[in-house]
Every structure is written in structure tokens, then in C-alpha cells.
Amino acid sequence: MKKVLLLGLIFIQLSSFAQNRMTLPLFENFDSYTITETPTDWTLETENYNWMLRDFAYFSPSVSLTIPFHDTEEKKAWVFTPGLDMEQGKMYILQFMLEAPGWDGIPEALELGFGDAAASSAMSEIIWSDNNLMQSDYVQMTFAVTPTETGTFYFGWHAFSAPNVDYISIDDVHVFEAPETDVNLFDSKLPESVLLGLAPETVLIVENLGSQAVSFDVNLSVIFNETEVYYESVNVANLTAIEKLEISFPEFTPDTEGDYTFVYTTTVANDANIENNTLTKVVHVVAGCEHHIKLTAPGLESGWYGASISITSDGIPVLTNITMDEGALLVFTFPSSEGAVINLEFDALGDLPEDCFWAVYDGENNLLLEGNGESLQPVSQTTTGNCPDVSIQKLSDIISVFPNPTTGSFTVTSNENVSMQILDITGKLLKKTSFIGTNTFRIETAGVYFLKFSNETGASVQRVIVK
Q: Per mean pLDDT, which of 166-180, 306-320, 453-467 is the most reliable?
């Protein structure tokens, strides 16, 4: 987002609104208010200028709670939730979306308090504090509290950044009582698109929103043309309350271009919210090569800061709303087929300088498109590119495993030199070797195992079942 100057200093020492007690859950996205209002039952406390509702830098349309930029004044302001009724010994969870990009290498500073009144002096616990915030895209923050007595309590955000930085925005504030069990398949690191012959990153992020530690299995199924082409399961042991964990699945390399649907699932006994037990994403596999876009801003401190870019190749999203940070030189790569129509769209919150330049190159480094910041508000361009003459070999076509399932022994045959790793269901490496021709291996313990093959042409994973 672009820097926005607060034109008038707001001299408000304390704005207290009716501090009504609320029963949980609380969800506030601020979208029912206009930018001239203050959220009902929220309280502001400031030494300089204040938090306010703004119609930019929001996560969910169309308003966020923001403390904006000022060129000379420090941020010294609190904002407090309405009073929330809580019971002794129960766990309560606060989630909110946060964006705090900083400016020109200078970070923002924010802390989160918890107490029994909507005032800084009543914030008896500082749950979290960070004076090095450089968060240019919204991120979800999650915290838990367990009151030691029954009563009415408040969360408070305290901005304390230096002058001449930028803004801090919060949105989609959610407070609720934690159930005993609530496993959330939070997000995956799957890309929107990947080149044929490359393995997309299958890492999944899971979190425990329940009050008790829990163990469970997470499954990954990959569907192509209505057929399951990959299935694996990973066990998660003793995930504690509010803990987030990244789970890695054995590598999967698509061998045909098209759309692959990745479906992550889990089943947890007595889960309070089964809707977040499934996560589905589509990955577009493109036969072609890596193209790239280069953005330069000679002599500018902020460069392309605040702009975003989206690119499609023959209608397939290959980059979507990539927010650009500061920098004199930025390069983003994306897959595209030879001869594909490339559609390029920029967006920016205001005018970009005319001496910001951009250029798109194909796989042979030929210039396809170019322009400057003055031409983008937003703009869409199309062109076609070329790829080097490189054939993609399916490694799985030159390897065979027999018998499978097996009682222990199995034979692997490869027509080319390959490296092979044998991994168990948890991803633990059991054996590593390289060979060409036919080799026999034995696994003594029954279970599911993975054979991971690789050479200079690509990679492949095959599953072996030992009975």
C-alpha cells in the first residue's frame, strides 16, 4: 500500500464509548461502519493521533481499523475491544488479521495487552510485543488467555512506532471460547502453478484451536482427471493448544500438464468444527519454461512499494496479487507455455513514478513487454513467448518396482542412473543409494514406505506397501 499522510493531527486524549459487556463470540470486521465512525463499544486512548476506520489497507472489504502515517509524530495510541464476559479457568482465543509494512527499512511497533478495563493502566498482561514489524501482507495472529477469575475483560492494541514510518491495520477481530478439540487445516504452501516436471511444495500448516493437546492423522489426496494419482498420510503427535505446525508430505511430481486438485483431510474425534478439517487447492501444471518480469526503480527509495501484480498464461493464473516491497530491482518468475498468451495486470493505490520501469522476458530471455509506472493504473497487456528446446522426461516411465505390495523383498529396475531414498511414513530416511539396472531391497517391518528417485531429468516418488 502507498504511504498516506494524515493531514490533520487529531488531539484526542481519551475517547470512552459505552463499555457494554458482551457475551462471546465477538467478530468484528468493521465493514458495517463508515470511515467517520468509531466501532460501537470500542475505546480509544491516545497521546498523539489516533486509531481510525479507513477504507484502504483492509483485509475483508471494505474497512479496517488503522493508525496511519504521520511525518513528525510518533504513534502513541491504544484501542480496546468492548468488555468481554469470561469465566475463570476457561481458555479464550483471540484472532485478528494484521498488516504493518514499515517504510524504507524502518519497522512498525505494536503490542497486545489484556486487562479488566479499557485503559492502558489496566492492561495487566502484555501478551505480545514486536518493535520490528515489517509485514507488507496481511497475516493472521492467534493468541490465547485463561483468566484467573470470572469477570469482564478487554484486549488492547498499543501502537508505538517512530515518526515517518507508515500505517498499522487490524481487521477481522475474532474472540471466542476455545473448545476442547478443534484442529484447523490452516493453509498450504502449494503454488498456483508449477512447471511440468517439477514437484510443487506440498507443505501443510495445521493449528490446534482447542484447549487440549491432540494427536491425529492428516491425509493428502491428489486428483487428476477424476482419478486419484497420489495418496499419503502423515501422523501429527501431541499438538498443543494454539500451536501451529508445518507438515511435509513425500514429494509428488505431476507427469502431465493440466489441473491437479490437492485435498488435505483429517478426522479428529469430538472436533468442534469439522468444516476446517478439509483444505482443497488446485495447482495448474504448465508444460513450458520459466519466464520472468523485472522491475527497476533507479534512485528511488520506495520503488514499486504498494503496487501489486497478477499474471495469467493462456488464462491460467501464474502470479496473483503479488505485493511488491521496496527495492531498486525486483524479479518475479512464472511458468508459461511456448506461444501462450500472457496477460499482465498491475494495480496500485495511487500513481507510481514514471521512472519505475518494468519488462517481461520469455524463457530465452527475449524482451516481450516493457513500460513504466506512469502507464499502470491498472493496465493489461498480452504477448507470446518462447521456450528453449528442452524435452521433459517422465522419470516414472523408466523405473519399475516389483512386487508391490510385498512381504519384504522387492526389485527396482531403472534404465538410467538414479539416486534412490527409502523413507518411512514419517519421512525418516532409511536408506540412500544410486544405481542403474536392477537391484533388490528388503524391508523387515510391515507398513507403508516411499521410494524417492531423482536424476538430472527430474524426480519421482513411488509408494511400497510391506505386508
A: 166-180
In contact, 302 and 324? CB cutoff 8 Å: no
pLDDT at 301: 52
Where residue 315 falls (left for φ over 0; alpha for ψ -120 to 50; beta otherwise) is left
Q: DSSP states of 316-341 as a string?
A: EEEEEEEE--S-SEEEEEEEE-TTPE
Tell which phi-psi region holds residue 343, choosing left (phi > 0), alpha (psi between -120 and 50) or beta.
beta
Instruction: Tell me how many degrees the CA angle 241-246-252 measures, rounded to the nearest 5.
Output: 145
Among the listed residues 101, 84, 75, 87, the one whose alpha carbon sits nearest the alpha carbon of residue 43: 84
Closest listed residue to residue 314, CA positions, set 355, 284, 294, 292: 284
Are 426 and 435 in contact by the 8 Å Cβ rule? The answer is no
Render pLDDT for 43-95 as a digit per residue (tens, 0 to 9): 999 877 789 998 877 888 889 999 988 888 899 999 999 999 999 999 999 99
